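INFO  loader      accepted 1 record
INFO  loader      residues=56
INFO  predictor   begin
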Amino acid sequence: MPTLKSYKELIVWQKSMILVKEIYKLTSNFPESEKFVLTSQMRRASVSIPSNIAEG
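INFO  predictor   done
INFO  writer      dumping tokens
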């Protein structure tokens, strides 16, 4: 079994980074009224996924 040198080699981390980019693209089209509530919450939630993987 090959050993990992970094969390960046994990497929789940790589896919979560793709998700973050997609969420940022998607939320950039949200109305201004949602910029500081829903947009912020979705972005923070998506960023927490790869962050938690890296921490682990």
